[in-house]
């Protein structure tokens, strides 16, 4: 069985942790819902797609993220939100994504309840960045991204509230915060 088949079998057979162990979820305090797409590119050695946001964005400028964003009133589901945002940011059409499922939502520090959506892309799919939102698009080997040996965390004290900050490094890219927490949660789900 290859890496991608192994990932799909493990992802689909294991239910997300209902306790939200990485960060507690308080839906009543969330400002708004959002969704991100964890896009797995079906290459012989599968990769996971990331973006680096531009320096001029109001929120999370220059940070590494998954494509995605806030749910809009005309989005019928969070899957539709993730697909719409992915199209707006990196020009991947919704019908080019095969949805595998979604993970438990995570509350962001900015108050959004973010639902990670996992989907597959053909190795032949082409994408390009929207220069107003995305500075760089890059791929990380899936096996590297979900290996817990590459994941790290520290405890931080934020105004008297202790929180765990996750981070992950791949080559010159430092992935941290919510994106790293989602990646860590995915890796834990696959154990």
Summarize the topology.
Elements: H1 3-13, E1 32-42, E2 47-53, E3 64-65, E4 68-70, H2 78-90, E5 97-102, E6 106-107, E7 112-122, E8 134-141, H3 142-145, E9 151-158, E10 161-170, E11 173-176, H4 178-189
Parallel strand pairs: 1-7
Antiparallel strand pairs: 1-2, 1-4, 2-3, 2-8, 5-7, 6-7, 9-10, 10-11
What composes the largest sheet?
8 strands, mixed
Radius of gyration: 16 Å
Unreliable spans are 14-28
Q: Give the termini distance in whole angstroms.
A: 17 Å
How large a portion of the residues is in β-strands, by DSSP E? 35-45%
Number of strands: 11
What structural keywords apply?
8-stranded mixed sheet; manganese; globular; 21% helix; magnesium; 3-stranded antiparallel sheet; 4 helices; NUDIX_hydrolase-like_dom_sf; CoA pyrophosphatase; CoAse
